[in-house]
């Protein structure tokens, strides 16, 4: 299915701190089949460009996005396309669990 072994899958999914932030931005901002560029991903995730690039490379290896095209103009923006992938559901579930945990912590502090 994904063509990667278990250890590699674990590293690709959760190996970097900004990966979940970038996944959240893509899930919220880019529809399946939609396009985005690196700069927008950097702003959306709030990470430095090297973190975003590394995470985009991993998402591409997992079949979640694909490199689309680069602008010919002075900015030469690199575009990506979000693909339909079951792996997005893993990130969505992880984000749901993070949200539940944050809500519980806030509720305990509010007591």
Describe this structure in words.
It is a single chain. The protein has 111 residues and is an alpha+beta fold. It has one domain (6-110): Winged helix-like DNA-binding domain superfamily/Winged helix DNA-binding domain (Arc Repressor Mutant, subunit A, Orthogonal Bundle), CATH 1.10.10.10. Helix content is 59%, strand content 13%. The chain has helices at 6-14, 19-29, 38-45, 49-61, 87-110, and strands spanning 35-37, 65-70, 78-82. It has a three-stranded antiparallel sheet with strand order 1-3-2. α2 (19-29) crosses α5 (87-110). It is globular. The model has no long low-confidence stretch (mean pLDDT 85).
Q: Which structural class do you get from the secondary structure elements? A: alpha+beta
What is the straight-line distance between the termini?
Answer: 47 Å
Helix content: 55-70%
Beta percentage is 5-15%
Taken together, the total number of domains comes to 1
**Strand order in the largest sheet:** 1-3-2
Number of helices: 5
For the biggest sheet, the summary is:
3 strands, antiparallel
Morphology call: globular
Order of helices and strands: HHEHHEEH
What is the β-strand count? 3
| CATH homologous superfamily title | Winged helix-like DNA-binding domain superfamily/Winged helix DNA-binding domain
Extract low-pLDDT stretches. none
Rg, Cα atoms, Å? 15 Å
Task: Give the CATH topology.
Answer: Arc Repressor Mutant, subunit A
Name of the CATH class: Mainly Alpha
Mean pLDDT, as a whole number?
85
